[in-house]
Amino acid sequence: MNTHNFSVSELEGREQGPLLVDGADRDEDRFALDLERYWHEAISLKYWLSAIVIAGVLLGILVTLLSTPLYRASSRLEVSQVAADITNLDSLDADAKVSELQYLNTQYELLTSNFMAERVIEAGNLTRSEAFRSAFAIEEEDGLRPAIETALFDNISIEPITQSSLVDVNFSSPDPSVSAEISNLWVQEFVAANYEKRFGANIEARDFLQSQIAELRERLARSEQELVEYANANEILVLNAGGDSGSESAGQTLIGADLQALNTALAVAVADRVSAQAAVVAGNFPSSDPRNQLLSALSEAEAELAVLLSSFGPDYPEVEEKQAEVNALRSAISGGGQDLLQAARIREAELRSQVEAAKDRFLGQQGQGIRYGILKREVDTNREIYDALLQRFKELEASGAGQNNIQIIDLAEVPLEPYAPSLIQNLLIALVASLVAAAGIVYLRVTLSQTLQDPEDVRRRLGLPLLGAIPRNIEGRMVDRILEKSSEISEAYTTVRTNVNFLTPNGAPKALMLTSTVPSEGKSISAVGIATSFAQLGKRVLLIDADLRNSKLRDTLDLDVHDKGGLVSLLSNQVTDISAEIVALDDFGFDFLPMGRTPPNPVELLAGEKFSQIIEAVSASYDQVLVDGAPMLALADAIEMSKAVDGVIFVVETDRIKLRGIENALGRLKRSGAQLFGAVVTKVSQKNSAYGYGYGYGYGYGYGYGPEKDVERA
User: Chief location of this protein (predicted)?
Assistant: First the structure.
């Protein structure tokens, strides 16, 4: 009877009605279906997700209320490229030329380096700062320095201002004063560190020269003091500085000057004495001598006396008077020359004695002058070295006087209000975090779901054509809904029948078996629904109850057929007339072959040729034969029955059986050679129907659904 040999791939390629779309359409719709799946998974978890969001918001409020207020202080720096040194005086550290972006990024990294933390700790003496330690609750036993460094790095932040060379240095703490202090200290130390880096060599050289200059200054002062003390002790008075030799000559001392002056005066006195003596002897006096006037008067008087003598004779009174005048002048001239000569001799002798005395003092002082010269040369040497170092120090000051390229623009002020915690910010964070957590739960639920949620998974995961999706019934008995042609259940089975009609070129396969993975997946009621739908087309339909282990069709159809031998009697050859065992169900429009009594050996009954003969016999009399087979489980009943029918329709309940179990059951059927025509998905809820199956068939499907509760499991 298994005359149709179509593979699953061929069936997928066939046009199978409104629910069997081709592969291109499935690819286009897959993304939208996945989004809908996530959305409706979220709808099914709406209470849990709402609780997560509410808990997140409450947690944000609680964190805000319990958090310690933080105050943030901000200082601003200007970081410029390094400028050229305009002094051009032997710069000891050449500045590297780097790009502006690279330079700025380097400075930003340096601002948050361990080097800066160490400088701030040292400059602010934070290890002894009670305010800082109390602000961050740092105890001595915690290890002060590591704890302080951690507090600094956790609360310092750098915010470069876009499109500028400005950068804000922020520090936050529970104490506003500490925040302002650390922020200002940070920028000040950074500026100082940059200056030291740029001019560090000059600064070190200047510091060294400064210490050397101070030492030389002290040494020069000591040498000068020793020189003065030695001069005072030995009464060495220096009137003027010495020559280029750096020593002192005798003429430069007071004694030497006195000796020189006395020697000069002695020479003058000797000259005066010689002149006076010559004048006395020869009567010649120097032009400046007052006796020259007396000589002139004497000459005139003698001339007048000669005239008078020649005129009047020696006894003339006027001659006598003139003679007396000449005698007086001669006496005056003779006596004055002797006095002057004597005075010159006395002055010469006095000066000579003084020169001798000064010479003795000078000769005694020459030994002291040697020591004085040594001290004086030491003073001069120290002064020269001092002047040279001082000059170099001034040059280094000039070369190191370049302007720092990093400057403080604004110092931080003590903040008046805390910037954190922010209720709005915490609520937004909590809301976003809770939404992310909720989305993660939905994603994990969908991703890790091991059951069939989306009817489209029949194609994607199981590789079977989807013949139909049956909505979950929540109103009345299932059979009543099937008989009601306007119901969504009836329309769903009509769709299944339509798709079954397209399974082969000749229409629906004549003998079909329905099976499932486990009981109560809707297999039996689906057999009733499909049989009813075929009967509504005017076809002669026979439904065979072949679930020999746990038949539910008898109770589902509410039939009293205990007096019938049924299928079991036919299989065991207890009866041979098949028509006598068939029951006509006028309400449903099809005939029914009940199972009969539950046999002790179902597999043995189904494994023989009898079941195939029965199927072949009824197929000759009916247009459509449907077999309600046993579920797969770990049994061989369905496998044995599949050999007698044209193909198998697999029934899958949504959100119940793990896909791995379904795949195992399908694998067993395929390995046995059974022809799998497709699958029917049952009990599709509103969540599952969002994927486009089970609702929307018409007649207002989807309306009037209440809680998702099975009224009848078949």
Answer: membrane
- Proportion of the chain above pLDDT 70, given as a percent: 74
Evaluate whether 510 touches 644 at the Cβ level (below 8 Å).
no
Query: SS3 letters for 523-561?
Result: HHHHHHHHHHHHHCCCCCEEEEECCCCCCCHHHHCCCCC
C-alpha pair distances (Å), 417 with each of 75, 154, 177, 245, 469:
17, 20, 12, 77, 63
Token pair, residue 435, equals: 């939404």
- Asked whether the predicted pLDDT for residue 552 surpasses 60, the reply is yes
d(CA 327, CA 306): 14
What are phi and psi for residue 455, nearest 5 degrees? -55, -25
Backbone angles phi, psi at 344, to 5 degrees: -65, -40
Q: Is the pTM of this model over 0.70?
A: no
Range 320-327, long-range pairs (CB < 8 A, 24+ positions):
325/301, 326/298, 326/301, 326/302
Taking every pair of Cα atoms in the chain, the longest distance, rounded to a whole number of angstroms, is 234
pLDDT at 355: 74
Pull the structure tokens for residue 103: 């330079």
Name all domains of the chain by residue range, CATH numbers in brackets: 8-20+465-689 (3.40.50.300)
Quote the radius of gyration of the chain (alpha carbons, Å): 67
Q: Are strands 511-516 and 624-628 parallel, antiparallel or unpaired?
A: parallel
β-partners of residue 584 are 591
Residue 200: closest CA among 106, 96, 115, 91: 91
Q: What CA–CA distances, in Å, run from 154 to 17, 143, 157, 225, 428? A: 65, 17, 8, 61, 23
* Residue of 608, 606, 651 lying closest to 492 (CA atoms): 651
> What pLDDT is attached to residue 478?
86
Task: Count the alpha carbons within 13 Å of 155 in the hemisphere toward its beta carbon.
Answer: 28
Peptide bond before residue 421 is cis, with ω within 30 degrees of 0: yes
Pair of tokens at residue 176? 């506003």
Find out whether 233 and 247 touch, Cβ atoms under 8 Å.
Answer: no
Number of other CB atoms surrounding residue 461 within 10 Å: 13
The dihedral of CA 362, 367, 373, 378: what is its sign? negative
Q: Which amino acid is at 484?
A: E
> Nearest Cα to 172, choosing from 181, 162, 163?
181
Three-state secondary structure call for residue 629: coil
Q: Provide the pLDDT for residue 691.
A: 47
Neighbours of 141 (CB within 10 A): 7
**Residue 281: CB partners within 8 Å, gap ≥ 6?**
none
Show the beta-strand stretches assigned E in 283-422: 406-410
Give the whole-angstrom CA distance, residue 422 versus residue 434.
18
Which element (helix H / strand E) includes 261? helix 254-282
In the block, tokens 């330079």 appear at 103
Residue entry with tokens 């039996």: 524
Residue 569 near residue 529 (C-beta atoms within 8 A): no
Q: Which tokens hold the place of 412?
A: 């931080």
- Identify the CA nearest to 566 among candidates 588, 598, 525: 598
- Cα(77)–Cα(159) distance, integer angstroms: 10
pLDDT at 348 > cutoff 80: no
Q: What is the DSSP letter of 469?
A: E
What is the residue type of 94?
Answer: A
Q: Given the DSSP bridges, would you call strands 71-79 and 166-173 parallel, antiparallel or unpaired?
A: antiparallel
Report pLDDT for 402: 57
CA 385 – CA 380 distance, rounded (Å): 9
Helix (H, G, I), strand (E, B) or coil at 170: strand
**Is it the case that residue 632 has pLDDT exceeding 50?**
yes
pLDDT at 271: 73
pLDDT band of 318, cuts 50, 70, 90:
confident
